[in-house]
Amino acid sequence: MYVPKAFAVEDRAWAERFIDANSFGTLVTVRDGEPFATHLPFLIEPERGPHGTLLAHMARANPHWQAFGDVPSLAIFSGPHAYVSPSWYRSAAPKVPTWNYAAVHVYGKVRLVEDVAATETLLRKLIAHAERGFDDPWTFERVDEPYRREMIHHIVAFEIPIDRIEAKAKLNQNRPEQDRRLVAEAVGGELGKMMEEVALTER
């Protein structure tokens, strides 16, 4: 990923929190000489391995998993984004339209989880992560074991020991502070909050 110095986020904990908050990512692997992408929910376990580990699963009918092996894969996580109008700027600096966004790229080789018990453990973690915040979280115990085992047979669970993480937050860091504050106010929402946390903080 092209990451100009002004937009690079070196804080590893920030990148991990970003993945946790924007956990529906895109996994890309080269298959038969071409990029192949699958959109999936992920869970990051920062303490597993030297650089953390991603957990996920996909349908066994999806041919993507057959490309796993000794080839690297890329998991892409995107956050809030918005068009930025030059009319929002007040400084005398040159101004053109742009787009503010944040993204995290995670690189690693996929490792299949083939043991049934380990697969079930992985699925429990993914479900617990997705159900957090619910008043009555759904659990795997609500599914009869025979049906649960049948469903497990139709998926492929996997882990990605992380080799490298790139984090980019393009949030007007190259503009005067007055402009950044005006854009943060104009876009509002999660992006505006992120601008206050990242772009408006001395790093």
Protein architecture, described:
- The structure is a single chain.
- The chain has 203 residues and is of the alpha+beta class.
- The protein has one domain (5-199): Electron Transport, Fmn-binding Protein, Chain A (Pnp Oxidase, Chain A, Roll).
- The protein is built from five helices and nine strands.
- The strands form two sheets. A five-stranded antiparallel β-sheet has the order 2-1-5-6-9, covered by helices on one side.
- A hairpin with a 2-residue loop joins strand 1 and strand 2.
- Helix 4 (177-187) runs antiparallel to helix 5.
- The longest helix is centred in the middle third of the chain and has 16 residues, at 116-131.
- The two termini are 21 Å apart.
Roughly how much helix do the residues carry, as a percent range? 25-40%
Strand order of the largest sheet: 2-1-5-6-9
Superfamily (CATH H level) name: Electron Transport, Fmn-binding Protein, Chain A
Major sheet size, sense and barrel closure = 5 strands, antiparallel
Name the CATH class.
Answer: Mainly Beta
Q: What is the terminal separation in angstroms?
A: 21 Å
What general form does the structure show?
Answer: elongated
Might you state the CATH topology name?
Pnp Oxidase, Chain A
User: What proportion of the residues form beta strands (DSSP E)?
Assistant: 25-35%
Low-confidence stretches: none
Radius of gyration: 20 Å
Number of strands: 9
